[in-house]
Amino acid sequence: MLTDEIASLTSGSSKDKGTIVEQVRRKQGAWTVEGLAVFLDVSPKLLYKLIKTGKLNAYRVGTLLRIDGQDAGNFLTNHSTIPQRQPPAKQR
Prior knowledge:
Radius of gyration: 15 Å
Mean pLDDT: 83
Order of helices and strands: HHHEHHEEH
């Protein structure tokens, strides 16, 4: 069920959740297009377009499309307009 797919990631304290990219990558199993769209608050149509143009990797299982969490996380990281968190620089 779609709500179970999202609930498994959003349960727990906000401290445990991490960034959106971390949450996407952490999902057990593959994302459905609809589930990832709900989680990212975008339309499924946008994700289908990204898949069709080859910008987002997806796997066909019969007639269904599934998106690996690592692939979705990589897409988000590579298309971020906000720099990702960097570890603090070492002091000499």
